[in-house]
Amino acid sequence: MNKAKFTYSIVAIGCLVAGSLVYITARPYSLLMFQWFELVGWSKWIFLLRTHLSNLFGGLPRVFILSGPFALWVLSYLIFIKVIWYGESSHLKHVWFWVIPILAIGTELLQNSPRVPGRFDIVDINAIVIAVIIARIIIPIERYTLKKERR
Q1: Are 127 and 72 a contacting pair, CB within 8 Å?
Q2: pLDDT tens-digit profile of 87-107?
Q3: CA-based torsion, 118, 121, 125, 128: positive or negative
Q4: At residue 61, what are phi and psi to the nearest 5 degrees?
Q5: Residues 8 and 79: beta-carbon distance below 8 Å
C-alpha cells in the first residue's frame, strides 16, 4: 500500500470512528440502536463509553450531534472508495462513489412522506452534500500524487 492510500485509509477510519463515537455517546438513549446493543449484550460497555465520553462529545453543537455522524460515515465510505479505486480510470469508480450519497439523499427525501420512517431534515441533506464536496476536493490531490508517482 502506498503512502497516499495509507493516509486515506487512516482518514476514513478516523471519520468512521468519530461519527460512531458521537452517535453512541451524544444521541438519545431512546434510539432503536440502543435496544440492539442491549439484545447483543453490549449495554454495559455502551453505558461506560457514554459515561466517560459524554463530556467530550456532549458539548458539541446540537446540529452536529444530529447530522454530523451520518455525514462522517458517508465521508468515510467515499474515502474508502477512493482507496479501493485509487489510480483506476474505470467508470465503475464513479458509480461506486455516487451510490451511497444518492441513496442517502434519496432516503432523506423519502422521509418527507408518511410511508418512510424517520424525520426529513434539510440539514442532513446539506451535511451529506458537504461530505461529498470534501471527498471530491481530495480528487485533485490524488491526480497530482499519481502524476508525481509516475515520473
Answers
A1: no
A2: 787 889 889 999 999 999 999
A3: negative
A4: -60, 140
A5: yes
